[in-house]
Structures are given as structure tokens and as C-alpha cells.
Write a structure and sequence with these properties.
Layout lengths: L7 H10 L15 H13 L1 H4 L2 H9 L4 H44 L2 H9 L3 H8 L4 H7 L4 H7 L2 H10 L3 E7 L21 E2 H9 L15 E9 L2 E11 L3 E5 L2 E5 L7 E5 L4 E5 L10 E8 L4 E9 L5 E7 L6 E3 L15 E3 L2 E4 L6 E8 L6 E9 L5 E4 L2 E9 L2 E7 L7 E8 L8 E5 L6 E4 L5 E5 L4 E4 L13 E4 L9
Parallel strand pairs: 2-4
Antiparallel strand pairs: 1-3, 1-25, 3-4, 5-6, 6-7, 7-8, 9-10, 10-11, 11-12, 13-14, 14-15, 15-16, 17-18, 18-19, 19-20, 21-22, 22-23, 23-24
Amino acid sequence: MEEKKGKPEDDFKSSRTTTIDPRRQGFGSTAQEPNRVRILRVLVHKPREYINGWLVKAVVDAIPGASLKRDWHEYKPLVSKSTSLLRLVEERIKLKRELEENQKKQHQNKEPQDVLVSVLYLPNDCIFNIIARLPLESLQTSRFVCKLWYEIVNSPTFIYAHLRRSDVGLIFLSPITKGLPSSVAGKTSVSSVKINFSVEAKVSEMQSMPVYHWPLIDPPSLFYIKFLEIKDGKGTMKEYNTTCMGQIRATFNGLIVLDNCMKRRGLIVLNPVTREMKPIPLGTRASPDHESYGLGFCHESKRYKLVHLFQDDLRYIGCEIMNIGSRSWRVVDGPPPGLFGWLGYQPIFAIAALHWVPNVDHNEYIVSMPVDVEKFEKIPLPNTGGIHDRIFEMGGFLGFVSRQHTNQIDVWILRSLGGEGWEKQYSISTMDCMRNMVPVYCVGIYAELVFRSKVNDLYAYDHHLQLLRKVDVNKENLPFVYSYFPHVNSLISWRI
């Protein structure tokens, strides 16, 4: 039955005239007590309409009998408390609605990026400097935190800023032989080992190669690409979970150049961290013992260049250069005859040029080629270099280790090609174990200098502490003597 709506007084009038059979009521023993139940029910279900000023008095006056008035005084504190809570709830709801309306208006007037920045309360420069201090492993996931972080991490400015903070280590190839059946040992295919990323499989996918372009029946060995980080005399081995079949030919700024062992041959430029790669065609064919690859960056053209030196049967050394991203090699003038005795040492890129040690022993100069002018020149050494002396990158400059005395090693630095020449940085008093050590790489100008011993052990010399420590690393994980290269992990791409 539909309830009729009327004034509040009508509810109380009807409650005064309502009679209920005493046999059916259970609240009291008189016929008037059902009216009390009616009034209290009205107070509970409609407090907003009846618990106000004069209306409260009208309710009390409308109650017949002192007993009901006594009951009202008993219920009045509870009703007053409920009214206060009701008012508080209504005020909270009203305030919440006002806040929601204001936020809705602000959201309509702001771009999503502006709203994000207002929440972070940090300028972009602060975020840039904070993220630049994160390790490379964290950057791979941090870039997906928000749109702003993604744009910062992928910007060329940030990538090179993070590169300058990264430490140098050793990258090398570790043969996959343990745990393989003897039937496939030495004839490993990509599908023989469970891996996360295969260079050759990716190349075949990129170039849509058919099966007959895969390696021959007797393919080369399969290798894991690994990285060794040396810090405070301790070596930490890191995995890329990446395999390849080709040897490493050159490294620079986090990029490596590999042999392409597919049937078409060629080379592969790869960043093992981002797994971005690009196959490039093979240039002039030569024996691995009579050629040399060097990778560098040209600041004028903002492009990475791959330099290939090769020696023919007449011992003439030719040179060809490829801009990474192009499709062909350019032939340029090679070094003058007589500058090179052999091409066995890996070139070093520093001070905007590639540098070669031209002979096995008794080197009085090095051969340099600035990658912007692409011309070869001879740079005299401060001392005659012996069979255990090497050049290396040293905080962006070119370093050189020489032994003029049996008990002393001198460390030199060249800051520019047209400057004042070589400067001696410091000397190391040698022990018997250091006589046959060869410098491998340097972390910084005054940081650790890593040496390799005759038995393939690694030692780190700390100039500040004047302390030589043997690197604590599992020797079984170390590569062959000449198969590792100085390397720094980065997000660098040849496109920037």
C-alpha cells in the first residue's frame, strides 16, 4: 500500500489516535504504549525531519502520559548524538563532493604530463641526475615507470651522460662445451642449448634467410658472450644470456663487432645490453692474422665508423671505412709503406682517433688515424716500447705503459694529438711477479690499472693505495689470453 506524504504533525496526530489490540502488542501493558513505539520509530527513521528545534518540543507535547515523556528523556541523548553524527557525515559528504568537482576542473585544464610533474614535485634536471646514477640493470625497467622517465632514459643526452659514469670491464666469449652430449660437442647448433637470445637466429629472422643460408654441416663453435667487471680487486662475472658463433673483432662505447657466421658471411654490430643489432656486408677478404678492425665515433658527422686495415700478399696495407648505417665500404688511402710491421694488436680509440701499436717489439712510435680526417700519422712514444708494453684508453685520453728499468713501470698519458705530448702520470715499483705483466685496460686516470700475467691471471693496481691485488675470479671462466676486449656496458645505439 502506498504511503501518503504529509506534514510532520500529521504523523504524530495519526500516532495519537492509533489503537492496537493489547493482546497483539508486546511493548507494554496499556493501549497507549503502541503510540510510543510509533513515535520512536518515526524519530529513528526520519531524524532529519523531526529532530529540529520547535518540532522536538511538539513531539514531546504530543506524547500522552508522563511515562512516555519519561521515555523521551531517556532516548533524547541517543537521538541528539545520532543527529550530531548525521550532521558530521553530511558535512563530510558535501566537502568530498566539492573536492571532486575541483579536481575534475583541474584535470580538464591540465595535460597528463603536467599533472604527473605536479605529483612528483621534482624538476626534470633533478630526475635526470637521479636516474643517471642508477645501474644499467635498473634502467632497463625504470624507463617504463612513466612517460617522462621513458623520454629521459631514451634521450641521447642521458645515454651519453650515463655512459660517462659507467665502469670499464672485459667482454669475452666463453665456449659452450660443458653439459652437451659428446655427439654434438664441436658441432653445436643454435637449438642445442637453451638460451634467451641467439645472434644468428636473430640475423636469419631479420633477413628472412632460408635454411640453406645457415652455417654448413660443420659449423663453428657456439659461445656465450660474458662480461667481467673488476672493482676493488674483485671480479664479478655477468651474463648477457646471449650466444654467437663469430669472434669479436672490435668494441667501443658498448657496441661490439662480431663475425657473421651465416653462409652469406659479413659482420654484425651488436649492443649486447639492448640486443639491438645490424648486419653489415663484408669488405675486402683477408686472413684474420693480416687484418685489423677498429670502431670509433666521429664528432663532426655524429656517426660511428668501422675502420678495416688489411694486408695483401705484397705486404701492402689497404684501408676501407664504413659508416655504421650505410650499406657499403669506402676505400681511403692506407698508411704509408713501412709504418706497420704487423696488425696483431687491437687498436684503441681515444682523443677522437684510432691508435695502433705497429710492431711486436721495439716500438718507437704508434700509428694514429683521426676518424674525422681519415688520415694516418705517426706519433712518437716517450720511451721505446717493449714486448710487454701497451697503449690503452685512460679516462678518455690515451695511456701508455713502458719499462725503462727492470724494477719500475712508468705510466704516461697523451691528452691531444696536437698538444704538448706525453706526460708521465706516475711510476710503479715492480716486483718479480710484475716483470712479464701486460696492461689490459684502465678504469680511469688515477683509478685501477688491470694487468694480465704470463699464466693468464689478472691483477689490479690501485694508484691511491699503491697496492697490487690479484683479481679474485674463477680462472675457469676466464677466456683465452687474446680473446677479451675492454668494454663498457651502455644503452648506446649507432643511430645516435
